[in-house]
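Q: Structure tokens for this one, please.
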Amino acid sequence: MKNLFVGNMSFQTTEADLRALFAPFGAVTRVHLAMDRETGRARGFAFVEMPNDAEAAKAIAGLDGKEVGGRNLKVNEARPKGEGRAPERSGGPGRSSGGGGNRGGNRERFSNEDYREAARQPREPRW
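A: Here is the predicted structure, written as tokens:
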């Protein structure tokens, strides 16, 4: 059983389109088209499961780089979920790792304590 990643797809591509595309290479067990939760629109990639490893290899060779819907498909063997992803920097999914002050209690990044002991310099008037 091989799970194949299909990327750089047109947003109008459907499950039926993918099944028809992979059918000449062998049996297709399952097609999972990634959809955006908020808009309900396709995200431009999918996973296709094929029971025979040799047929899956033929599909990769035949479809990788092929133009479908005005875009060149990227087809390769899918990696397991945790593999090849960047490690989480901020302590969990859904957390932003960008700047923005001290929202997440991240004391190492920014703290007002550093400025409290420093003597304040008088500011020049703006007018």
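A few notes: Residues 99 and 109 are 9 Å apart (CA to CA). The chain is about 20% helix and 25% strand.
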